[in-house]
Amino acid sequence: MKLASLAESRLGKVLYEFRREFVWVGVFSLIANVLMLTPTIYMLQVYDRVLKSQNELTLAVVTVIMIALFAVMAVAELLRSRLLVRAGVRLDESLNSLVFHSSFRQFLTQGKNTTVTTFTDMTNIRQFLTGQGIIAFFDIPWSPVYILVSFLLHPLLGSVTFVFAAVQAVLAWRGHVTTSPGIAVSSDKAVAASSYIQSKLRNIEAVHAMGMAANLRPRWVERQEEAVASAGVSQDEQQRQQSISKFFRYCMQSLTLGAGALLVLDGQLSVGGMIAGNVLMARALAPLDMVVTTWKQFVQAREGYDRLEGLLDEFDVREEGHAADEVQGGVVAEALSASAAGGSVQILHDLSTRFSPGEVAVMVGPSGSGKSTFARCLLGIWPETSGKVLVDGVDVKEWDRRVLGPAVGYLPQDVELFDGSLAENIARFTEVDSEKVIAAAAKTGIHEMILHLPKGYDSRIGEAGSALSGGQRQRVALARALYDDPALVVLDEPNANLDEAGEKALAEVVRDLAANRKTVVLITHRPGILAVADRLLVMKEGRLVEDGPRDEVIERLKDRNQASGSEPAPPKALN
After folding, report:
1. Does the CA dihedral 69-71-73-76 come out positive or negative?
2. SS3 255
3. Mean pLDDT of the chain
4. DSSP codes, 477-500
5. Which pLDDT does position 461 carry in this prediction?
6. Which residue, among 120, 102, 112, has the nearest Cα to 190 in the 3D structure?
7. Alpha helices in 46-154 (DSSP H)
8. Sign of the alpha-carbon torsion through 474, 475, 479, 482
9. How far apart are CA 466 and CA 475, in angstroms?
10. Which of 60, 133, 264, 472 is the residue whose CA sits 20 to 30 A from 230?
11. Greater confidence, 167 or 201?
12. Could you give the CA distance from residue 137 to residue 295 in angstroms, rounded to a whole number?
């Protein structure tokens, strides 16, 4: 890849920043490969000069020179290796944040959880760039130098070395053609099998309780067998290529020695030249042989590079967006529509409404009417939308999330907590402000409960909040949503797992938010919370069928039911 095109993509720009390091690696490779001629020259001197002259002083001098040159070569190789390792560490530091946020955005917008594959790709690239594979590519340009020196010893030796190097290059190319597809396929199947079992482990309690493990096992075994079979075919082909390459390499070295011996018998070459020619042959083929050996790493790194490049280019993270000194929390939806991934199913249809600071808007409607999708659209986290959602007059997707995020409180329908302490979860894993954490916990009525735990706010809750009950998880998540007094609060089924005391605490929280000029959007299936509503929105089949002051909407619904001849609808009939 040309440097100009390398610097065009996001991943290419990161790698382009390391061009100076790779130039120095090339310089150290030059020194190391030139000094690789030391054994050849030393051998020629010993056989052709020392043994003939029987001069011990000459032997001592050439030996000292040889050791000094080997020391320089060792230092050059050490510096090259250390430079590559440090460049690999810096590369990881440069990429990990970009890859993390891009993977996050991909999962948010497409629902594809490729995190394991993505970070494996990043590891493969780093390992290739710091291992023997990249060194082999730096050494390959020196193979013609060794072939040229072989020609200087004798044209026949040079010709033999050139032919054998060409054969080895053809074998390397054939290995690429035959093994690359198999490596890619086996890798994909292994990831598919691993992802399948990981997705089931996330619901292990339900799987175990209902005896589903035995039913799921054959499905996983089928994927696993495909992965193992594919890996076996790929490994067989790789081993076959390596065996063929090794066979030719051994034959070539021996035939080179035989060709040298023939020249010695004809008096055209000295014994030292014969041995030196064999050493040069080995050095000329060593990089090519290393390429064959590390070809799997190269293919994995190349495939990983292509995937990461596509990920970073498609889901590039804007470093800056709209920012404001203070978020007011006013929200306007204009002709908002939303669909499932790929646009196959329309969920919301042309919704227009607004939510103002100090107002409590409660949304009700039957299951599947689009309430939760609407909540996600208001926060800018639903991928397939048309129309606009404006927060303080600015498109929600144009906001800098580092500014808007802390000003938003969101309680999703499916509560998700993270492995860490209670304080860290409530503080959203920022630097914990004890006063703000306690204030948020007190608002939701869990402060006393937390104090009774062995370690209080430092108690760890386990992955996904496994150490807490469902109601406790929901109240901790509500405290997280209320942390640091957000301007916009969206609560999706906040009372689903709450007891009577918890629901009263929730009502007090909502009233307090409204009194402090916060914008509150609350989705519910339970009628008790309707008492705190200023506005009532009714959703049905992805459309807003009612939107207005609470009492007026309830009266209209009663009148509509009476006009249709049915009994007056109790509050819960709004659900």
Report:
1. negative
2. helix
3. 80
4. HHHHHHTT--SEEEEESTTTT--H
5. 81
6. 120
7. 51-53, 56-110, 115-130, 132-139, 143-153
8. positive
9. 14
10. 133
11. 167
12. 11
Range in 41-50, 174-183, 400-409, 412-421 the model is least confident about: 174-183
The rounded distance, in Å, linking the Cα atoms of 359 and 238 is 67
When pLDDT is cut at 50, 70 and 90, the band that residue 334 belongs to is very high
Choice among 2-6, 222-226, 236-240, 535-539 with the minimum mean pLDDT:
2-6
Distance spanning both ends of the chain, measured CA to CA: 60
Q: Is the pLDDT of residue 160 over 80?
A: yes
The label of the residue with tokens 């916990």 reads 441
Cα(445)–Cα(450) distance, integer angstroms: 10
Q: Are 539 and 374 in contact (CB under 8 A)?
A: yes
Domains of the chain: 331-574 (3.40.50.300)
Q: Please tell me the distance from the alpha carbon of residue 493 to that of residue 414, in angstroms, as a whole number.
A: 9
Tokens of 560: 């509509």
Q: What's at 168, amino acid-wise?
A: Q
Has this prediction a pTM greater than 0.70?
Answer: no
Cα 77 from Cα 35, distance rounded (Å)? 11
Mean per-residue pLDDT for 565-573? 48
CA angle 116, 119, 121 (to 5 degrees): 105
Q: Which of 538, 550, 545, 543 is nearest to 574 (CA)?
A: 538
Query: The tokens 């790698």 sit on which residue?
Result: 15
